[in-house]
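Saturday, quiet lab. Running sequence design on the structure tokens for the scaffold JK sent over.
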């Protein structure tokens, strides 16, 4: 027989003597904090333990349940010796291990790991509310000769199902056992689901998930959307073992021992010294911005401004926190609205391949949580889960949303907050949470009438309300018009299909690293010169608004904020520490292109941004008031105003038939008028 090793003793020696690089006792500080603040957990770096005693470390990782119990019991004794009141107030202690070497990818979890300590990495996608779980039940033996109360199960803790004993541990007789809930020991308990990170998923596959259980002081230390590194023991679900015994198919879950949230979003893109050298070399090119734009979806012909906008979004500006702790986003949100078949989806697909931490989804969303977040009820267990949607999962990165016009109703409300404040608040089924959604949005949508109609406003063309449209910094419209360029388009597509080299572009891997590098390290500051330029442009545009009596609002402070972000993005594209005059000029230029593209005449200031977004310019609003007046007057003499008569009256006022039809339709929708009988209206 092997000689019994006293692991508890070795462990105490370890925490008493282990020194860090600077020669300081590494774990004494934590021990003091545990005593002072009645903390329940001691976190140990597994590598330290391994270097101290290989045998203990190896035994621990292969037989974690038994060994952890020995070590935790011994630690409790140790702490009570130092402070006798500790064990009165703190009933159990936990040893939490980090940095364990057995890192298993979610795709490779196999039965070999059952009952072993493993480490997995992923995104926390779902979380239940915190519940109370029975750790040790107290039963009473109802046999009149006994009537003793005892804790159950005696050694380990309760599994998933409370099972009464068959024989009394006190008197050794069978009988009736009564569960005593008030004396039973509980622990905080929470179930979460960890999912593979999108960047490690093989293309075209569904993400793998693993259920995990957090207990005690680990509950609520993480939130959906967090990227986590988890250490835990892989266990078999007990209920499945009992109920599906004959099938012999078991579900596993991870009983979590420690969980760390990874803060550094961009460390996921590995940049070597050699890469860094190449990146800095590229940045020296005076044409670097053009080079980057040309490298966005090079197989797509033309659409330069759209590629430029996508590049700007990929780099984005610098987020700021004001003294009153309001946060202003640095992310540049871009929307492409366009006719079918104009390569919108292709451009988006490309963006998702170069963006760091990219989440690609469609407006409908690939999960129940959609674009923001949702509380969902699981069919099998009936558990409620808070589930993170695309913008939360893309926190710190880029959310790419195709067919955004197909967005679900719930998302239409929540996306306003997600795009501006960059949080998602949810309160439903007892779950109250605020999740981070600091993501750049690159979206595309199809026109609601099949084709984009230039004569109409954006909101008339796409199934999105003006409030959502106004959250985009840049909107571009892609109209498929046959013409002069068809020759080049055709030869470009044919070249791509015959895999002939297109142009000299930055390889996609390097571009991705370049973007990650800029997002991580470059936070350019506005120079006075750049500031002045942006300010002058803003003031000038606002002045045009007040010149005409119609006073349209050409741009709003939102566009000024967008201009600042865009200027910063141009500086970031060249890895510059400062936003110079040139960056500001470029920003103003692309903003002009955007405004003109959507139909605003920047020079004369004829149409305002409000018209473009809402389709209701001041003059249209006046037309509406006029038509409403006509309806009111006509319906006083007869019981309702006939459409025919309204049109005749309106034409006398210079409003044509098609406008009247549209206005009536709008007014009915917004509840200003109602139809009392066919083609006859009354004011509400
Ligand atoms: P959308 O999402 O706008 O409906 P897709 O991205 O699905 O369009 O594009 C349809 C097809 O047409 C794709 O195969 C795309 O490569 C091709 N295509 C459209 N416009 C261009 C273009 N300008 N250059 C190269 N290919 C194009
Ligand atoms: Zn008994
Ligand atoms: Mg498409």
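Result came back. Writing it out in full:
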């Amino acid at each position: 027989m092997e000689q019994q090793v006293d692991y508890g003793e070795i462990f105490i020696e370890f925490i008493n003597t282990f020194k860090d690089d600077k020669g300081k006792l590494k774990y004494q500080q934590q021990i003091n904090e545990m005593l002072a603040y009645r903390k329940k957990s001691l976190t140990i770096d597994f590598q330290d333990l391994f270097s101290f005693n290989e045998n203990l470390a190896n035994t621990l990782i292969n037989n974690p349940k038994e060994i952890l119990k020995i070590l935790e019991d011994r630690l409790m004794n140790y702490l009570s010796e130092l402070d006798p009141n500790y064990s009165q107030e703190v009933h159990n202690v936990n040893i939490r291990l980090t940095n364990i070497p057995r890192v298993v990818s979610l795709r490779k979890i196999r039965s070999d790991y059952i009952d072993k300590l493993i480490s997995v990495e992923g995104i926390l996608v779902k979380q239940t509310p915190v519940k109370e779980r029975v750790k040790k039940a107290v039963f009473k033996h109802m046999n009149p000769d006994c009537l003793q109360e005892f804790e159950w199960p005696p050694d380990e803790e309760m599994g998933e199902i409370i099972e009464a004993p068959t024989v009394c541990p006190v008197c050794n007789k069978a009988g009736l056992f009564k569960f005593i809930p008030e004396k039973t020991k509980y622990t905080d308990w929470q179930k979460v689901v960890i999912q593979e990170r999108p960047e490690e998923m093989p293309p075209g596959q569904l993400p793998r998930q693993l259920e995990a259980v957090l207990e005690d002081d680990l509950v609520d230390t993480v939130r959906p959307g967090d990227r986590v590194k988890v250490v835990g023991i892989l266990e078999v679900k007990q209920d499945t073992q009992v109920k599906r015994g004959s099938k012999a198919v078991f579900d596993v879950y991870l009983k979590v021992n420690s969980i760390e949230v990874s803060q550094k979003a961009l460390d996921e893109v590995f940049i070597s010294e050699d890469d860094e050298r190449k990146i800095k070399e590229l940045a020296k090119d005076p044409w670097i911005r053009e080079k980057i734009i040309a490298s966005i979806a090079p197989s797509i012909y033309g659409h330069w401004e759209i590629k430029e906008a996508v590049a700007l979004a990929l780099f984005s500006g610098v987020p700021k926190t004001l003294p009153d702790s309001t946060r202003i986003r640095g992310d540049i949100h871009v929307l492409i609205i366009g006719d079918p078949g104009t390569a919108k989806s292709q451009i988006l697909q490309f963006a998702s391949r170069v963006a760091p931490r990219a989440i690609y989804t469609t407006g409908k969303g690939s999960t129940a949580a959609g674009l923001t977040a949702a509380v969902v009820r699981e069919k099998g267990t009936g558990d409620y889960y808070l589930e993170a949607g695309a913008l939360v999962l893309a926190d710190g990165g880029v959310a790419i949303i195709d067919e955004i016009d197909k967005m679900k109703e719930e998302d239409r409300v929540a996306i306003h907050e997600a795009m501006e404040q960059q949080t998602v608040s949810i309160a439903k089924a007892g779950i109250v949470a605020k999740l981070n959604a600091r993501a750049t949005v690159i979206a595309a949508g199809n026109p609601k009438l099949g084709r984009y109609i230039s004569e109409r406003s954006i909101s008339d063309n796409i199934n999105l309300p003006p409030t959502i449209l106004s959250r985009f910094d840049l909107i571009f419209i892609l109209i498929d018009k046959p013409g002069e360029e068809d020759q080049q388009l055709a030869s470009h597509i044919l070249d791509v299909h015959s895999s002939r080299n297109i142009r000299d572009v930055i390889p996609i891997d390097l571009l991705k690293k370049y973007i990650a590098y800029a997002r991580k390290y470059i936070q350019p500051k506005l120079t006075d010169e750049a500031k002045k330029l942006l300010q002058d442009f803003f003031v000038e545009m606002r002045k045009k608004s007040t010149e005409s009596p119609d006073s349209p609002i050409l741009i709003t402070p939102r566009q000024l904020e967008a201009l600042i972000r865009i200027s910063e993005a141009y500086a970031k594209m060249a890895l510059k520490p400062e936003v110079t005059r040139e960056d500001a000029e470029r920003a103003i230029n692309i903003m002009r292109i955007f405004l003109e593209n959507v139909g605003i005449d920047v020079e004369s200031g004829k149409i305002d941004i409000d018209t473009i977004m809402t389709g209701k310019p001041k003059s249209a609003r006046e037309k509406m008031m006029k038509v409403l007046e006509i309806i009111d007057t006509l319906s006083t003499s007869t019981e309702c105003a006939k459409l025919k008569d309204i049109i005749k009256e309106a034409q006398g006022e210079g409003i044509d038939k098609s406008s009247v039809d549209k206005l009536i339709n709008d007014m009915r929708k917004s509840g200003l008028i109602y139809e009392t009988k066919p083609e006859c209206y009354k004011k509400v």
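Notes for JK: The domain at 273-597 is CATH 3.40.50.300 (Rossmann fold). The chain has a mean pLDDT of 85. Ask whether to fix the surface positions before the next round.
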